[in-house]
């Protein structure tokens, strides 16, 4: 019976009729609304919202509502933190450096790791010019950051969990490039001289990867520190990269630590060190040939770099289309770039991408070639963070253990087993079905289902979150009744955004009866919900 239920979605989500000459078959309005809601705010649409989606212009109406939803900002921050690999389980500095107990390690790594992503999402949510992410003099901080970092709240009376703050140690107004969180995540050793940080800056903001450049050079006979430094300036293969990398690294020397395991060194800024890059690397600070005489020039140089908006458009496209882009996507990416730079509003970029044929596709048409099918995958899969967010919004359950989110870590949690990336050993998510991912989803579904049924039993019908929304006493429903089918249909709408067919209804009736033989009705409803949450139609979108 359960095996049958797990095959509910083998035929894929409902789609509209295949349009002539197009590669894509559009999703139906309900599943499209579900996709947009997950991508913009990390939760499923309500029944009322699904009704709006079915109306003419309803998808556009919902998109505008969700772009202004309070959940938009924290969800975007979570997506960016995942995309930029900011959420490491351990950072360069130990929590003992700040007299924090070992149990605060998760909160510590997430506070500093999320800081740059929170700032980017804040700028986007407030419709501020997106160039502010590298030019503003404020950052975002939670209580731990305000306590540990040299920060002061912009509004000391604010009780928001994340709020605007300013650094007090003389660092320049370079947005995320002046955040302790970014450079604690992308740290440097004393003798790396910020080169790794410069490479991260280029990769994250310009989509320029120094490490991906094909460079040929002879074996280096002397691999000591002195020998490597000599090769950097004398070996042509090394010079090819370092001629641009070292001057860029030189712009970051205000963050360079003289002791790379000291907590205050790693989160502080030291204006007096800004010009040390030239002394240590032999290269004057510069940005791809433009001299940098003051660290405050770096952010504006990034903002004016034509690669910056292209990179932001490319990253957003890859996030929303759930695949890497390539040269065949240049038109898509540059059109998205134009949408961004027209008013430098990040939401305009998202609006543009959400309307593209590929984003709104439920499947590929018969006109698609094998190469198209290899390259484009219309069916999205929930990443561990999205899965946790959607399940919590639907059921009220968050899988926590010892203050750690089990889908957002690996030292304690199950992030990599669920297909996520830890940022160190696993650099890219792998969300295809696997034994470990299936087991994680199963355990999450069981716990969430049990929680929501228990909680909904204590509430009146109007206040219930998921179960018993069609009848006052859902424990008295008989599996062979119309009331059972009505309740299950309401669950399917909430979970799948689509109705069940007769076979699926019959399977759920049989499952409910089977559980009642050994347990009670609450356990039976929890089992029904658990199986629906494990169905591929739930964790794909």
List keywords for this structure.
48% helix, three-stranded antiparallel sheet, 541 residues, two-stranded antiparallel sheet
Describe the structure.
The structure is a single chain. Mean pLDDT is 92; it is low at 1-10. The protein has helices at 2-5, 29-41, 47-53, 58-67, 72-83, 105-125, 143-148, 180-185, 195-206, 225-234, 236-250, 263-267, 276-281, 298-304, 307-321, 330-341, 346-354, 370-375, 384-395, 435-457, 482-496, 502-518, 521-534, 536-539; strands spanning 24-26, 139-141, 151-153, 163-167, 286-287, 290-291, 361-364, 400-401, 404-405. It folds into 4 domains: 2-22 and 380-539, no CATH class; 28-69, no CATH class; 78-213 and 249-274 and 291-296, no CATH class; 306-359. The protein contains 24 helices and 9 strands. A 3-stranded antiparallel sheet has the order 2-4-3. The protein has a two-stranded antiparallel sheet with strand order 1-7. A two-stranded antiparallel sheet has the order 5-6. Helix content is 48%, strand content 5%. The chain is mostly helical and 541 residues long. The two termini are 24 Å apart. The radius of gyration is 26 Å and the shape is globular. Helix 2 runs parallel beside helix 4, helix 5 (72-83) packs across helix 6 (105-125) and helix 22 (502-518) packs across helix 23. A hairpin with a 2-residue loop joins strand 5 (286-287) and strand 6.
């Amino acid at each position: 019976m359960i095996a049958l239920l797990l095959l509910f979605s083998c035929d894929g989500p409902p789609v509209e009729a295949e349009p002539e000459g197009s590669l894509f078959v559009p999703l139906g309005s309900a599943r499209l609304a579900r996709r947009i809601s997950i991508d913009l705010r990390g939760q499923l649409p309500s029944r009322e919202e699904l009704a709006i989606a079915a109306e003419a212009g309803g998808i556009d109406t919902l998109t505008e509502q969700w772009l202004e939803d309070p959940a938009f900002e924290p969800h975007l921050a979570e997506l960016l933190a995942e995309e930029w690999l900011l959420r490491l389980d351990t950072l360069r500095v130990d929590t003992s450096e700040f007299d924090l107990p070992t149990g605060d390690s998760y909160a510590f790594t997430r506070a500093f790791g999320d800081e740059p992503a929170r700032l980017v999402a804040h700028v986007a949510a407030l419709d501020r010019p997106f160039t502010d992410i590298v030019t503003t003099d404020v950052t975002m901080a939670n209580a731990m950051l305000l306590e540990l970092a040299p920060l002061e709240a912009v509004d000391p009376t604010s009780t928001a969990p994340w709020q605007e703050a300013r650094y007090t140690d003389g660092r320049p107004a370079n947005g995320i490039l002046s955040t302790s969180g970014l450079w604690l995540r992308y740290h440097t050793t004393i003798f790396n001289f910020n080169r790794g940080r410069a490479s991260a800056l280029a990769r994250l903001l310009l989509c320029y990867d120094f490490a991906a450049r094909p460079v040929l050079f002879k074996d280096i006979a002397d691999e000591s520190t002195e020998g490597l430094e000599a090769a950097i300036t004398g070996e042509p293969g090394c010079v090819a990269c370092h001629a641009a990398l070292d001057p860029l690294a030189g712009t970051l020397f205000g963050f360079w630590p003289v002791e790379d395991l000291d907590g205050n060194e790693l989160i502080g800024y030291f204006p007096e060190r800004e010009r040390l890059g030239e002394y240590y690397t032999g290269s004057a600070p510069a940005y791809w040939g433009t001299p940098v005489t003051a660290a405050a020039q770096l952010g504006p140089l990034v903002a004016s770099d034509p690669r910056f908006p292209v990179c932001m458009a490319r990253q957003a496209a890859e996030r929303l289309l759930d695949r890497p882009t390539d040269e065949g996507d240049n038109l898509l990416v540059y059109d998205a770039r134009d949408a961004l730079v027209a008013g430098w509003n990040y939401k305009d970029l998202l609006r543009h991408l959400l309307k593209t044929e590929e984003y709104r596709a439920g499947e590929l048409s018969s006109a698609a070639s094998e190469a198209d099918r290899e390259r484009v995958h219309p069916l999205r899969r929930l990443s561990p963070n999205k899965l946790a967010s959607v399940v919590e919004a639907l059921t009220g359950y968050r899988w926590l253990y010892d203050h750690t989110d089990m889908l957002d870590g690996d030292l304690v949690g199950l992030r990599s087993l669920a297909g996520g990336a830890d940022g160190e050993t696993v650099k890219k998510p792998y969300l295809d079905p696997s034994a470990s991912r299936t087991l994680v989803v199963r355990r999450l579904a069981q716990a969430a289902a049990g929680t929501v049924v228990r909680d909904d039993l204590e509430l009146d019908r109007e206040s219930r979150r998921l179960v018993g929304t069609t009848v006052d006493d859902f424990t008295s429903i008989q599996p062979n009744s119309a009331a059972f089918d009505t309740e299950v249909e309401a669950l399917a709408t909430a979970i799948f955004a689509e109705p069940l067919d007769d076979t699926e209804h019959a399977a759920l009736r049989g499952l409910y009866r089977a559980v009642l033989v050994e347990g009670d009705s609450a356990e039976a409803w929890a089992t029904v919900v658990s199986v629906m949450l494990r169905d591929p139609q739930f964790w794909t979108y």
